[in-house]
Amino acid sequence: MNKKILIGILVLSMIVCSSGVFGASTSATGRTQLYFHDVDVTMVNHDPDPAEAGRYVTVRFKVENTGAETAKDIVLEILPKYPFSLDPGESAIKSIGSVRSRQIGDTGVIEDYRLRIDENAIEGDNEIELRYNIDGGSWIKLEPFDIEVNPHDIILSIASVESPSMINPGEVSRIDINLENLALSFLKEVKVKLNIDDIPFATIGSTNRKIIKQIEADSTAMVSFNIMAEPDAESQLYKVPIELEYNDRLGVKYNKTEIVGLIVGAEPDLSVIIDDSEIYNSGGTGEVSIKLTNKGVTDIKFVNLMLLDGEYTILSPEEVYVGNIDSDDYETADFNLKLDKLKTEEVALPLILEYKDANNNEYKEEIRLPLKLYSSSDAKAIGVKKGNSTVGIVIVLIIVVGGFFIYRRWRKKKKGQKMDGFGTKVPFLGKK
Question: What kind of fold does domain 156-264 have according to CATH?
Answer without folding.
Answer: Immunoglobulin-like (2.60.40)
